[in-house]
Amino acid sequence: MHTTVTAPSTPAKGMPLHYKVLIGFVLGTALGLAGHALALDAQWIHGLIDYVTKPFGQIFLNLLFMLVVPLIFSALVLGVAELGDIAALGRLGWKTLIYTAVVTAAAVGIGLLCVNLLQPGLHMDPALVQKTMSGNVLKAGEIVSKGNELRLMDLLVNIVPHNIVGAMADDKQKLGIVFFALMIGIGLVMKPTPGTHAFKGALHGLFEISMHLIGLFIRLAPYAVACFMFNLTFQLGFDVIRSLIWFVVTVLLALAIHGFVVIPLWVKLMGGMSPRVFFRETQEATLTAFATASSTATLPVTLRVAEDNLKLPRKVSRFVLTVGASANHHGTALFEGITVLFLAQVYGLHLPLTQQLMVLVLCILGGIGTAGIPSGSLPVIAMICGIIGIDPAGIGIIIGVNTFLDMCRTSLNVTGDLATAVVVAHRSGEKDLDDAAMEKLDEIVR
C-alpha cells in the first residue's frame, strides 16, 4: 500500500474548472437579474427554482458535506501520525495557533477600520430598513434563537466531545472531530504496533477514496454556482442590493485589503514565497470556495492545491488545512466585526473604543467557533450582538445580501488557510519523508 495521495479527478483536457465556475457565476447572475426584471411573477420560473435549481444546488452541497467527516478525520489523523513526534506536533500546533490569531486579528482590525471610516449604517433609509427586516423577520428569528444558544464557554467545552457520533452530526461541533482526530493521531504515534499500522493503512484508503469521490462531485460546481446565483439574483433584483450597497462595499473593500495586501505580505515576508506564485497556484481552491460558500466542502481541493501546486509537506498541509477548515476563518471574523458595528450604526448606537476592542476579541473567538458551512457565521453574529447590547433581530437587514458576501468571505477563509500553511511550512522547516523512508514506511504498513 503506497502512501502517495490520489488527487481528486480533474478533467485532463478542455477548459479548467475554475474558469467554468466563473462562467456559471456570470450566466446565473445575468439570467436571474433578467428574470427578476422581466418575469418576476411568472409561475414557471418559480417552479424552475423550486423543482430544479434549488434542489440541484442543495444536492451538490450534500454530496460534498457527506464526505467532510471522513475526510477531516482521516486527513488530520494521518497528518499527525506522519509527524512521528509528539514534540513536533506541539511545535506545529502552537505555530498554527499563533499565526492564525495574529492574522485573524489583523483581518478584524481592517474590518472595524473600514466600517468606522465609511459608516455604512448611516446611509440606510429607515423605511428601507423596516422593509428589509419585515421581509426576513421569520428567518431572523430563527438565527437569533440559535445565537442565544451559543455561549463562548460552551464553544470551548464542546471542543472536547462527549459523543463523537453526535459531534459528527452537528456542524457546530466540527472542532470536536478535530480534537478526536488529534487524539487518535497521537495514539498512533505513541503505540506503533501491527494493529495500529494496519489501522493507519485503512485510513490512507479512506482518505484517497474521499478525495477521489469529492473530485468527481466538484465537477458539478459550475452548474451549482449558476443555480445559486440565479436563485439569489432572481429573488433580490437590484432594489435590495442598492439599499445595502454601502454595507456590501464596506465588506468587499475590507476583504480586498486583507486578501490583496495583508496576505501577500504575510506570504512574502513570513512564508518566503512570491505572492504572484501563491495566487496563481491557489486560484482553483479560491474559486471552489466561492462556488460552495463552505471551507469544509472545499477542503479536498485545498489539500490538493497545497500538496500538488504549492509543494507543501503533507504532514504540514494536512494538519494546518484540516484544522483551518474548522477554526481559521479570516474572512468570517472580518465580516462578523463589520456586521456588528454596521447594525450599531443603523440603530444609532455609538460603540466606544473599549467595546470595539471587545468586538475584535469576540470576532476572533467567534471565527474559531463558526461552522464552516454556508451562512454559518449568522448565529455567531447574533450572539455577539446580544453580548454587546445590540438587538440581534437586526440581522434580518443583511440576510438579502448575505449569500453573495458569504461566498466572498469563504474565498478569503480558504486563501488565508493556504497562506497560513505556507508560513507554517516555511517557519517550521518540516519536510516530507524522502523516497527511501517512504518505501520503508510502506513495508511497515503492509
Automatic annotation (TrEMBL):
Localisation per UniProt entry: Cell membrane
Matching InterPro entries: Na-dicarboxylate_symporter, Na:dicarbo_symporter_sf
UniProt keyword annotation of Transcription present: no
Protein name, UniProt field: Dicarboxylate/amino acid:cation symporter
The keyword Transmembrane belongs to this UniProt entry's keyword annotation: yes
Major localization listed first in the record, in broad terms: membrane
Native species: Thermomonas beijingensis
Keyword set, alphabetical order: Cell membrane, Membrane, Transmembrane, Transmembrane helix, Transport
Domain of life: Bacteria
Transmembrane segments: 21-39, 59-84, 96-118, 175-192, 213-232, 244-267, 357-374, 380-405
Membrane topology: Multi-pass membrane protein
